[in-house]
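Question (not urgent): is this output format expected?
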Amino acid sequence: MNAHEDVETAGQGDWFVRTAAMVGDLSSPFYREERERDVWNEASAVGLQVDLLLGIAAATAMVWIGGATALPYAIAVLILAAAGSGVAMSYARRLGVRVTDSGSVMRLRLIPYVALLTLFLLGAVRAAPSSRFGAGFVWGMVAGFAGLLLWLAWSEIRDRRRKRLDNS
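Got this back:
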């Protein structure tokens, strides 16, 4: 069974999986040849990571260079950068693949993302408008980022414990 057949079987009643398969053109004959499919999947993963890094870097540069004026646009770029990653993770989860279960969440490859997001948040705090809404919104982003870091650390600890229990 190939990946497309998995999608057809697992996502028959799921509108999200059906829509994603249509957007990704997963019924294309291209996906029937295993090597081409594997290479394309790897290329797509690399492209997604490059887009995510460049999007976060662009948003970070916008907030540091453009200040308060650029902040709404930088936030929009950040949301767009995260959207593709969020859709990919949701798609995998809907088909029964949990990205965090396949290995360590806290990998060295996450350091550039955390560094860029930290720089973005520092720039956003610096550039935040003095209005109550603007400042509150930026501090809400900071709190959300801190929560995300805590969740990642908790997930890492939980996964290590689960692996230790499974191995004993």
